[in-house]
């Protein structure tokens, strides 16, 4: 990942002059409708609305945020693919929407080829957490408790449900996997005693730092910034990870100048430390991660391959 981010940074610097020219030359044909795939007040929604405000402030583009939720972003994606590809409509979801959530249902309503990938804004801070009141300090403590009785494992997506199932299979325990709406829903369930352990995607940061939650493992392929001592699932012997990004997309066929202008405008905002968007991303998700262009196309394609492998493993 470090190599990927460094490459992205070099590319951004090399293209700075030409990007400025594209931004100056391109303008949307009218107001930009910004579809948001998740509920109001969540991490995706908050980022999107702050970015929309800054786009209007910096470039004079009228941006109209609009919620279109449901099915892990699939409802938004299915609608976005059929909308105008002239830069007047973009959507914000997560990479999971265009990989696992796209193929996990009974009917695939869209494909990656239906979209133009614009840019990521941040990566997940996916951790496996539990209330400190449970008395568990380590991963081994939680697994021992699961072997001694029922443990409710909170998840916020089918993909994470499959990962929780495979964790249990590896550890020889049968978790009671319970689904909640969003990372905040899992956190609320843990706080209320409706779940014993669960995934957090960034919303847990404040609770972990305050000592209300313990983060026993990283759900990513790397350790998390706020709990560098917590091992990854790979370090615990499992070939599992829940890496992912917040991502902006547009319908397929978006002209190159529009793709570059919109992607660079959003990237500029989230990387600018003076913006509210940058602040909320740093606070909730450990900092910005900007991937765009051909590099983002590859990330999306690789995520789809990994999603297919996960589904196959979970079905065995």
Report on the structure:
It is a single chain. With 316 residues, this protein is α/β, with parallel strands linked by helices. Helix content is 44%, strand content 17%. The chain is built from twelve helices and ten strands. It has helices at 2-14, 16-25, 43-59, 74-80, 100-103, 139-148, 158-171, 182-192, 205-209, 256-271, 276-285, 293-315, and strands at residues 32-36, 63-67, 89-94, 115-123, 127-131, 152-155, 176-179, 197-200, 213-218, 245-251. Helix 3 links the parallel strand 1 and strand 2 (63-67). Helix 2 crosses helix 10 (256-271) and helix 3 packs antiparallel against helix 11. The longest helix has 23 residues, at 293-315. Mean pLDDT is 92; it is low at 1-12 and 14-18.
Number of E-state strands: 10
Structural class: alpha/beta
Strand content: 15-25%
Let me know the average pLDDT. Answer: 92
- Kindly report the spatial arrangement of strands forming the biggest sheet: 2-1-3-10-4
Describe the biggest sheet?
Answer: 5 strands, mixed
DSSP helical segment count: 12
| Regions with little confidence, pLDDT below 50 for 5+ residues | 1-12, 14-18
**Rg measurement, Å:** 20 Å
């Amino acid at each position: 990942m470090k190599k990927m981010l460094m490459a992205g940074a070099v590319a951004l610097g090399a293209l700075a002059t030409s990007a400025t020219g594209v931004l100056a030359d391109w303008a949307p044909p009218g107001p930009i409708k910004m579809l948001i795939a998740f509920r109001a007040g969540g991490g995706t929604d908050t980022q999107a609305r702050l970015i929309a405000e800054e786009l209007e402030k910096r470039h004079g583009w009228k941006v109209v945020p609009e919620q279109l939720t449901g099915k892990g972003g699939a409802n938004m994606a299915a609608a976005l693919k059929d909308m105008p590809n002239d830069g007047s409509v973009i959507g914000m979801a997560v990479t999971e929407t265009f990989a696992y959530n796209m193929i996990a249902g009974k009917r695939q309503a869209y494909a990656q080829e239906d979209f133009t990938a614009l840019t990521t804004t941040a990566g997940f801070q996916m951790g496996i957490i539990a209330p400190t009141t449970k008395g568990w300090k380590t991963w081994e403590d939680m697994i021992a408790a699961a072997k001694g009785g029922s443990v409710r494992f909170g998840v916020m997506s089918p993909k994470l449900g499959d990962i929780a199932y495979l964790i249990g299979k590896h550890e020889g325990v049968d978790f009671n996997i319970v689904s909640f709406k969003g990372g905040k829903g899992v956190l609320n369930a843990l706080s209320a005693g409706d779940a014993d352990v669960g995934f957090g995607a960034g919303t847990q940061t404040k609770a972990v730092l305050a000592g209300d939650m313990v983060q026993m493992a990283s759900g990513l392929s790397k350790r998390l910034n706020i709990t560098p001592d917590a091992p990854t699932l790979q370090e615990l012997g499992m070939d599992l990870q829940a890496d992912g990004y917040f991502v902006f997309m547009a319908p397929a066929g978006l002209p190159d100048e529009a793709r570059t202008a919109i992607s660079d405008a959003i990237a500029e905002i989230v990387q600018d430390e003076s913006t509210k968007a940058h602040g909320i991303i740093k606070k909730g998700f450990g900092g910005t991660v900007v991937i765009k262009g051909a590099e983002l196309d590859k990330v999306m394609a690789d995520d789809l391959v990994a999603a297919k492998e996960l589904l196959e493993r979970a079905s065995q």
